[in-house]
Amino acid sequence: MTVPMEYRLASQRFEDFLGDVAEETGLATRNQAYTVVQGVLHAFRRSISTEDAIAFAQILPAMLRAGYGRMPEDTLLP
Fold this sequence. Notes:
By secondary structure, the chain is an all-alpha fold. It is built from 5 helices and no strands. 71% of the residues lie in helices and 0% in strands.
């Protein structure tokens, strides 16, 4: 079975994304950038309906989608 290109390149694209976040925000590390991205996604997810959260997840790149889906269940509470 062939692995879809989206998944073969997912790690590199995610690392590139974190590098861009770190550069744009002036952060020193990718760990800091990851924490910022996680916080933004968490806040955004709490501010929208469950249906919108699911629709949004479907358009995210693979690695961001995986992290977005792993957020604690309480993020969906008002």
